[in-house]
Amino acid sequence: MVAKRIIARRFSTEKREPSQPYFSKTTTAAFVLCGAGYYYYDLVGGTVEGLVRSIQFYSFAIPWYVVYRYHLFRQSPQETWDALDQKASQQALEKILQLQGFYIKCGQMAAANIGDAFPVIWQETMHPLQDQVPALPFSVITSILDEEMPQWRDLFAQIDPVPIGSASIGQVHKAVLKSTGEPVVVKVCYPHVERLLRGDVRTMTLFCQVAQPVHVPALQEMEHQFQTEFDYRQEAMNMETVRQNMLKANMPCVVPKPLLAHCTKRVLVMEYLPGEKLAAALKREVEQQASMAGKSVKEYVQEQERYVEKSKIPFVSNRQYSYWIQMEDMKRRWHNLRARLYNMSVGWLPGQVWMNYRDRNTLPLNHAQLVDDVIRIHGQQVLVDGFFNGDPHPGNILLCYYGKNEAPVLGLIDFGQVKRLSKEQRHLFCRLVIALDDDNFSEIVRLTQSAGYQSGNMIPECLYKYAVVAYDEERLTGGKHIQLFMEELQAADQIITFPKDYLMVGRASILLRGLCHALHQPRSVAKLWRPIAERVLEEDL
Which part of the chain is the Protein kinase domain (predicted)? Predict the structure, then answer.
């Protein structure tokens, strides 16, 4: 019956309307949109959660990006920018705490003023992300421990349910080994975090391809680094390698010893370092100095800024800090002597309150020495060892205290983003460091090209400026915000090929300079790395 109808229709002489296209325009558009949507869905992790997170990010980022660009075009006054920063940063913090994941890392970069790229208002608003990231309940952590190392209850005599730190991919708990009584740190990776962070980075990359192309290579390299950052066994081996390198070179720092036998893909057990994050130590220092001066923190900071401006000193030198610390140490010793005499005499009388003693950690920190040490330590890693941490932000640096009357020691943690340089790469970069310190234009351009940088027009001036700003200092920005400077540089001659290994060296350099800016200690990285570079070339060649 059906066949008869088909034949009758085919050979019928009746006039029929022209046949319609198999797919209408609407249907075709729907297929295209669905295909694009599926592609994007897969790009951000292949989960509904990843898609929702991406939409939430764009619904916040795009409107604010347009507003900022509008005020930049209008050249709005500073008062307008301050009000804008206040409102935008507060909303950004709320969105970051809602989404967490990779966006926590972005907020921490703003708090640390990485690359001197963030206004003070943004730094202050994002500061809670340095040490107050919401942690998962301890029951979730124990369930992960049960999966990863079922024998953990036999390994630890106790484990503190309150984390001593939490970050974008996991949280850290202090524990005690049952066998030796030694305090250790247990770092636990959050469940499903790798998939979420990959989706977050891809979302950010797509946004930057339109809004901030200069950041795309760094984000792509960051995603590549996730191959090791989410495997704590690899991080433990990285940590041990860096620890041995630092011990061999007698660097002024400590690196925790990992307990390799007890590390799994999602759990890292390591030596406990007695100290605090550098950012927290610096904040505490300002609060102590303000309290001793009888002022609020704001009043104390403003007074110090006025003093520096009045004295026209660009920064306080190592020698000046040493002299100041010696004076404060004499005051501390005199205070402790008075306290001891008082407590051993009048203090015994009824109703008398004993005087407190002041430990050495109440003394001001030598910011100049601290900055020099941090930069030289990473110069050793990059130029000598060819094995360096590509993420040396203040949250990954500790101040460790091993005695009441001993000076604090730098502690290095978090080795998930470690990069290697070959001998040839190290030698080329050593030559670039020397050329940067000499400000040798032609040599800087030649070595930048040899490193693998390729731009659209290969304009020497643009390659020179990029190398100086990426690896040394910001003196060529002319007072411009580094973000705007890099955008203008890209517009003049877009960098097409970034050598990934050197890209991470540049990122480390910018992070280190972010610490310098935070401590008001401007530095030329090339000047501090030059002696190391010359020694490497002399010994190897």
Answer: 158-541
Over residues 91-109, the pLDDT tens digits come to: 999 999 999 888 988 888 7
- Cα 171 from Cα 268, distance rounded (Å): 11
Q: What phi and psi values does residue 113 have, to the nearest 5 degrees?
A: 55, 50
Q: Which residues are paired to 397 by β-bridges? A: 412
Burial of 71-98, coded b for 16+ CB within 10 Å and e otherwise, reads eeeeeeeeeeeeebbeebbeebbebbbe
**Domains in the chain, start-ordered, CATH in brackets?**
37-130 (no CATH), 138-274 (3.30.200), 279-365 (no CATH), 421-540 (no CATH)
Lowest pLDDT segment from 119-128, 171-180, 476-485: 476-485
Give the three-class secondary structure for 44. Answer: coil
Return d(Cα 76, Cα 73) in angstroms, integer. 8
Asked whether 264 and 186 are in contact (CB, 8 A), the reply is: no
- 148 neighbors 267 (Cβ within 8 angstroms): yes
Strands 397-400 and 275-277, bridge-based pairing = antiparallel
Residue 462, class by beta-carbon neighbours within 10 Å (0-12 exposed, 13-18 middle, 19+ buried)?
buried
Residue with tokens 């967490």: 100
3-state secondary structure 492-508: HCCEEECCHHHHHHHHH
With b for 16 or more beta-carbon neighbours within 10 A and e for fewer, the 253-283 pattern comes to bbbbebbeebbbebbbbbbbbebbbbbbbbb
Give pTM, 2 decimals.
0.83
Instruction: Say whether 366 sits in a helix, a strand or coil.
Output: coil
d(CA 261, CA 233): 10
pLDDT tens-digit readout, 148-165: 999 999 999 999 999 998
In sequence order, what DSSP letters do the residues of 114-147 get, joined into one string? GGG-S-HHHHHHHGGGGT-PPPPPHHHHHHHHHH
